[in-house]
């Protein structure tokens, strides 16, 4: 039996466990599916749990749609305690009494909704002079970081016991919930850190669609495959354009085609007449559709669409 499958593409919605890096979870999923190529749609810290979309094969070409998408989290913030990392994995650097009422918390939370500026945490993978910030932090060094604009679309208090608050956070890409927790504690005058984090949604995908690694282990290969979404699920929000054979061939050869009447401007999902997903094109408003990101295809003899077949991925 070959180590890798042939022509294997799809999207797995994985429920990542705590204590595991996103890459380690990716590698386990890749092994279970015997996939030759894989990538994930947005890193979760090892402490965090929840939705980690994993893309296999040609689906990795569209993973940026997930990285750029809105995210949703359930976050537990503990007030009165600051840590070196801004979360529960760091050493405690300060303890303060918490005298925060629910109305005070609600007022503070309201101040973080909308576009805000965050200073990225030192314990992050952002790079400075070619080195990730966490490498400086582990040496006890702190370097200057430029604030970044992010957007908090929704921030709701789900529970509050006077010391810990459970928050529902919906935010843009690039948002650090750890930093949000620290900034919220600072605004309340008592400090705080992120005690727990669970990602509940990425773009159109939600946690209730996800499967754990343990559940995958218990499934047969066919049952695992049934958990996969097709590659075009990543771009399902884009308008669909079905192509005639001649236009399909031209786009797959890198040529622009005349946009059919009524074609929406912007990025488009491209499909063959038989319904096969081809990738993305773009209508620039000039009457032409140009290829932007296509699945690999072989151009073979034939007509009416029969001459196309997905190129098999290499087997090692």
Automatic annotation (TrEMBL):
InterPro entries: PsdUridine_synth_cat_dom_sf, PsdUridine_synth_N, PUA-like_sf, PUA_sf, tRNA_psdUridine_synth_TruB, tRNA_sdUridine_synth_fam1_C, TruB_C. Residues 178-235 form the tRNA pseudouridylate synthase B C-terminal domain. Its EC number is 5.4.99.25. Residues 239-295 form the tRNA pseudouridine synthase II TruB subfamily 1 C-terminal domain. The keyword Isomerase applies. Keywords: Isomerase, tRNA processing. The keyword Cytoplasm does not apply. Gene3D superfamilies: Pseudouridine synthase, PUA domain. It comes from the Bacteria. It catalyses: uridine(55) in tRNA = pseudouridine(55) in tRNA. GO terms for biological process: mRNA pseudouridine synthesis; tRNA pseudouridine synthesis. GO terms for molecular function: RNA binding; tRNA pseudouridine(55) synthase activity. It holds the Pfam family TruB_C_2. Residues 30-177 form the Pseudouridine synthase II N-terminal domain. The active site is at 45 (nucleophile). Belongs to the pseudouridine synthase TruB family. Type 1 subfamily. Responsible for synthesis of pseudouridine from uracil-55 in the psi GC loop of transfer RNAs. This is tRNA pseudouridine synthase B. The gene is truB.
């Amino acid at each position: 039996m070959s180590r890798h499958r042939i022509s294997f593409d799809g999207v797995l919605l994985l429920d990542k466990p705590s204590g595991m890096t996103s890459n380690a979870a990716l590698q386990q999923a890749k092994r279970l599916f015997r996939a030759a190529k894989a990538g994930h749609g947005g890193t979760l810290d090892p402490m965090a749990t929840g939705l980690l979309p994993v893309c296999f094969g040609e689906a990795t070409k569209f993973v940026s749609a997930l990285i750029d998408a809105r995210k949703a989290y359930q976050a537990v913030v503990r007030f009165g305690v600051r840590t070196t990392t801004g979360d529960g994995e760091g050493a405690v650097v300060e303890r303060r009494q918490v005298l925060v009422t629910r109305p005070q918390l609600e007022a503070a939370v309201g101040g973080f909704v909308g576009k805000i500026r965050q200073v990225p945490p030192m314990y992050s993978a952002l790079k400075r002079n070619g080195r990730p910030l966490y490498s400086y932090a582990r040496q006890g060094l702190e370097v200057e970081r430029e604030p970044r604009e992010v957007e908090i679309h929704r921030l709701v208090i789900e529970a509050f016991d006077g010391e810990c608050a459970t928050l529902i956070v919906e935010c843009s890409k690039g948002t650090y919930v750890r930093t949000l927790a620290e900034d919220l504690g600072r605004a309340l005058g008592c400090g705080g850190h992120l005690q727990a984090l669970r990602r509940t949604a990425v773009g159109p995908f939600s946690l209730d669609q996800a499967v754990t690694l343990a559940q995958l282990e218990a499934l047969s290969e066919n049952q695992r495959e049934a958990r996969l979404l097709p590659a075009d699920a990543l771009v399902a929000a884009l308008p669909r354009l079905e192509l005639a054979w001649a236009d399909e061939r031209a786009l797959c050869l890198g040529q622009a085609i005349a946009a059919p009447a009524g074609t929406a401007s912007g990025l488009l999902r491209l499909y063959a007449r038989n319904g096969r997903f081809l990738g993305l094109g773009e209508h620039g408003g000039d009457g032409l559709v140009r290829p932007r990101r296509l699945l690999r295809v072989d151009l073979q003899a034939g007509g009416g669409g029969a001459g196309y077949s997905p190129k098999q991925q290499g087997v090692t």
